[in-house]
Design goal:
By secondary structure, the protein is an alpha+beta fold. It has 2 domains: 4-183, Jelly Rolls (Sandwich), CATH 2.60.120.280; 193-300, Homeodomain-like (Arc Repressor Mutant, subunit A), CATH 1.10.10.60. Helix content is 45%, strand content 22%. It has helices at 4-12, 89-93, 127-132, 144-157, 164-183, 192-197, 201-210, 218-224, 229-240, 244-262, 267-273, 279-290, 294-300, and strands at 14-25, 29-32, 39-52, 58-61, 64-68, 74-77, 85-87, 101-105, 113-122, 138-141. Strands 1, 2, 3, 4, 5, 6, 7, 8, 9 and 10 form a 10-stranded mixed β-sheet that branches. Helix 4 packs antiparallel against helix 5 (164-183). The protein is globular.
Length: 301
């Protein structure tokens, strides 16, 4: 059956851009401005504090991995009180040519922490919709597969070998999948991961993704979840953060936009592929949701 998480990441079109080694010792701290693009940080050795806007403060240690799909402002520091050095995340991310490891705090000697930080971009124009289904902060501890992938990213990013960009992009896709599926649990924030971790809601989500053309009703989806219609509606909305029909509509529009950007199908074919019986019905729904007609969207893309 179709894997919703794989479909979301495929539509996001992640592309590797930049990674950098960072270390700190003694009294140190850096404050990054809001970035908006996805970023990650992996602790290679030692420990530090991470304070992300709107999230509880975390103590990171060796083997930890942090992913922020739409990076807000955050502060990374040692454990001593300090006024953090302010860094413009966008300006820092543009310095692709810099080499080596950035050091904060005490310059000489062994660092208290070493991390590999990086950012990438989602090429999809629908990234905001997809990101809204993911947690604002993903913190994974002790997953060996992630540590291996981070090491591969570091090695590949440090060289200029043939195929480097393609390899990095594939590694970023793997990082995303591994981090997100390691986080899926009943206590995750409302969104796709929490929905996929719910034994009753997950079958309904998979059915929607696998059979996008079906004329689904809440009652039919509730049956796949073995719940009453009202219980399913309430549980789905609470778990995913959207009512079931709104989630289905958003997903259909995301898939439709992907098909229209490719410009391989006529509008009536796109309509059929996302579950609409006629091009006119699809055009009306698309225009209302996206703000422009399918034809205009395709031409603009």
């Amino acid at each position: 059956m179709t894997d919703p998480l794989t479909e979301v990441i495929t539509l996001l079109q992640p592309r590797a851009v930049f990674s950098k080694g960072i270390s700190g010792a003694g009294r140190w701290g850096v404050r990054y401005s809001e970035f908006g693009q996805p970023s990650f940080s992996a602790v290679l050795e030692g420990s530090c504090r991470l304070a992300v806007d709107g999230q509880p403060v975390l103590t990171l240690q060796a083997g930890d991995f942090v992913l922020m799909p739409a990076t807000p402002g955050f502060t990374m520091s040692g454990f001593e009180p300090v006024v953090p050095e302010r860094i413009d995340a966008k300006a820092a991310s543009s310095s692709k040519g810099s080499r080596g490891e950035v050091r904060y705090g005490t310059r000489g000697g062994r660092p208290d922490v070493r991390t590999l930080g990086g950012y990438f971009v989602f090429d999809s124009p629908d990234a905001a919709l997809m990101v809204s289904l993911l947690p604002a902060l993903v913190h994974v501890r002790g997953v060996e597969r992630l540590s291996t992938l981070v090491q591969l990213v570091r090695d590949e990013a440090s060289d200029q070998r043939s195929g480097r960009e393609l390899v990095l992009t594939r590694l970023v896709e793997l990082l995303l999948i591994e981090a997100l599926r390691s986080t899926a649990s009943d206590d995750a924030p409302p969104g796709l991961l929490r929905g996929l971790a719910d034994a009753r809601i997950a079958p309904a989500i998979r059915q929607m993704h696998a059979h996008l053309t079906r004329s689904w009703t809440v009652a039919q989806l509730a049956k796949s979840a073995a719940l009453s219609r009202s219980a399913f509606f309430d549980r789905f909305t609470r778990t995913v953060g959207l009512p079931p029909m709104e989630y289905l509509l958003d997903w259909r529009m995301a898939v439709a936009r992907g098909l229209l950007r490719r410009r391989e199908f006529a509008i009536n074919e796109v309509a059929e592929r996302v579950g609409y019986s006629s091009a006119s019905t699809f055009t009306t729904a698309f225009s209302r949701r996206v703000g422009q007609s399918p034809g205009r969207y395709a031409r603009a893309s």
